[in-house]
Design a protein that fits this description.
Helix content: under 10%
Order of helices and strands: EEEEEEEEEEE
Low-confidence stretches: none
Mean pLDDT: 93
Distance between the termini: 40 Å
Amino acid sequence: QVQLVESGGGSVQSGGSLRLSCAASGHTRRNYCIGWFRQAPGKEREGVAVIDSDGGTTYADSVQVRFTISQDNAKNTLYLQMNNLKPEDTAMYYCAASSHSVLFNPLSPTEYNYWGQGTQVTVSS
């Protein structure tokens, strides 16, 4: 069992920044990938950024220039630094972890079996 709790969301103006955090607890050592996903109203959930057990990262094309995923292993915490936010970044952001040994597509939400409750990010123009 893995528990994930997101924090750090809020409302910012276009061009602003936010730093999301995801605190992980439980049996986390066998997770192969952990990352951030988002879902805007009326749209499907999409992968934003993920990091694997070796520290390798994968970003969605729409955010790779502006967002940075990182982790603090000592604190078992995942971060998403979001810079130059745009209105189209407005969504509920979720932290998720996968215990699968092989991920066909690390940005696919279907590959992840542990999910946080989400934190809202709203970007106004």
